[in-house]
Amino acid sequence: MTPFCAELIGTMLLILMGDGVVANVCLAKTKGNSSGWMVITTAWALAVFIGVVVAGPYSGAHLNPAVSVGLAIGGLFPWSSVGEYVLAQMLGASLGALLVWLVYKDHFDATESKETKLGVFCTNAEIRHTPVNLFTEIVGTFALMFVVFYITNGELSYEAKTYPVGLGSVGAIPVSFTVWVIGLALGGPTGYAINPARDLAPRFMHAILPIKGKGGSQWGYAWIPVAGPVIGAALAGMLYLWLQV
Predict the structure, then answer these.
(1) pLDDT tens for residues 197-217?
(2) What's the alpha-carbon Rg for the chain, to the nearest Å?
(3) What ranges make up the beta strands (E) of 155-245?
């Protein structure tokens, strides 16, 4: 499997399970209807886990354009590969969102709220306050990216030998816990996109899919879950570099 395919498939699985749990909790007449924020944040964390397990050995499992940019700024990933990774992530996220719509189509049809339908695909601020919304995404992604730097360089020692943790199967566990706590602690204001592909690609799918009774895709907000994560990851990368001096 090539790194491009790994990023595409890993991100597809991430969005399939992540957007899938939002659909299960929020759409009408599902088995998981109204099961709450704990279910959503837990499933998103586990979605990260399975995406990283699959993609980790082949691409490092970024699954997030902000992670690719942050690692490049931190000197742990070549800038020449960033474009390829971002394209794969966007395509994978689009495919994952499409699959969620197909699985839950009857429930989309049974749901009256336009906002609820949009919320399956992408994030939105509970209180629109642009500087605070942007700052929230910056802080959440900074926390994710800064932890990722130290997981990437981590090692396990066993019988006088060291083994790299990276973002493979073992590294997937701390990454998942990091995403989980970010959702629980910082997800309330904006829904913690912390990933441009997670928000932008599914938002685009919401715009083009023939979803019954859908409203607009709220493109006026869409730049925040793109710019915020990129800025947060860049700040984490610069701090990481400074700490290595």
Answers:
(1) 999 999 999 999 999 999 999
(2) 17
(3) 155-158, 161-164
Beta-carbon count within 10 A of 196 CB: 27
Quickly count: other Cβ atoms within 10 Å of residue 122's Cβ.
Answer: 26
Q: What are phi and psi of 157, to 5 degrees?
A: -105, 135
State the virtual CA torsion across 103, 193, 145, 232 in degrees, nearest 10: 160
pLDDT in tens, 91-146: 999 999 999 999 999 999 999 999 999 999 999 999 999 999 999 999 999 999 99
- Report CA-CA distances (Å) from 64 to 11, 75, 121, 146, 190: 8, 17, 16, 14, 18
CB 54 within 8 A of CB 10: yes
pTM of the predicted model over 0.90? yes
Domains of the chain as residue ranges with CATH: 3-244 (1.20.1080.10)
Q: How far apart are CA 109 and CA 222, in angstroms?
A: 24
User: Any idea what the Cα angle at residue 51 is, between residues 147 and 31, rounded to 5°?
Assistant: 110
